């Protein structure tokens, strides 16, 4: 089932979508014991659509990429900014049987849909949804971390309001162990504003937020950073992928 968002930035949408479908068929659907099961993923997506939620979740292959990163890190504790319907959350929580995810969502209606999806997938006991504005929630989370109430995170996935990217990133790094992975999504396209290098986009708040986290992460002695541009069924974009030193 394709989850497509068409834009005019990258013209070869038909080709990249075809490759996405081929890849998902062979690296997930055909994989023995693939988790989450495809029928669960389809139901989760259907619930997202039925609830009138925006079509901004990660693609199937991006979800699998996140899961692989969590497996590489042998992640026991994952932090996510932007739950939506829980599509990406489900990929990450299935990285290992011990993986637990703390996910932050500002919209209470979205959080309600996500909770139902986690129950459907029978992983609700390993996922904690923290509701509220991301900047407020993560500030309290950092307090709890310093008080010894929160375990260090092994992987963080940031996919929320772009203007707050750096705040989320900085707090996540503080709460991460050495060797942890921090990923910021939609980094090359400034959310849906436009490519971050186009002069006409430089005053867009989302682009400002994306450029800020790229430039500050690149100069941050706490991490080693890379920016990976991507194409696929969801068109052109990119991820900032960092490891804490």
UniProtKB/TrEMBL annotation:
Signal peptide: none annotated. One of its GO terms (molecular function) is O-methyltransferase activity. GO terms for biological process: methylation. Keywords: Methyltransferase, S-adenosyl-L-methionine, Transferase. It comes from the Eukaryota. Belongs to the class I-like SAM-binding methyltransferase superfamily. Cation-dependent O-methyltransferase family. This is O-methyltransferase. It comes from Verruconis gallopava.
């Amino acid at each position: 089932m394709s989850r497509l968002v068409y834009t005019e930035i990258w013209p070869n949408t038909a080709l990249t979508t075809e490759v996405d479908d081929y890849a998902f068929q062979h690296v997930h659907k055909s994989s023995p014991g693939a988790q989450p099961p495809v029928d669960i993923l389809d139901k989760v997506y259907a619930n997202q659509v039925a609830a009138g939620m925006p079509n901004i979740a990660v693609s199937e292959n991006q979800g699998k990429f996140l899961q692989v990163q969590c497996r590489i890190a042998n992640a026991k504790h994952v932090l996510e900014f932007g739950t939506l319907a829980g599509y990406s959350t489900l990929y990450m929580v299935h990285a290992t049987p011990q993986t637990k995810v703390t996910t932050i969502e500002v919209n209470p209606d979205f959080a309600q849909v996500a909770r139902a999806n986690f129950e459907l997938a029978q992983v609700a006991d390993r996922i904690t949804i923290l509701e509220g504005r991301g900047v407020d929630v993560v500030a309290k989370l950092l307090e709890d971390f310093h008080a010894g109430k929160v375990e260090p995170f092994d992987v963080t996935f940031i996919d929320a309001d772009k203007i707050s990217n750096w705040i989320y990133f900085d707090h996540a790094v503080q709460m991460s162990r050495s060797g942890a992975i921090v990923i910021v999504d939609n980094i090359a396209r400034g959310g849906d504003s436009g490519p971050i290098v186009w002069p006409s986009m430089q005053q867009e708040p989302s682009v400002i937020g994306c450029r800020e986290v790229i430039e500050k992460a690149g100069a941050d002695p706490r991490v080693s950073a890379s920016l990976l541009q991507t194409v696929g069924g969801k068109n052109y974009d990119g991820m900032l992928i960092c490891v804490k030193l």
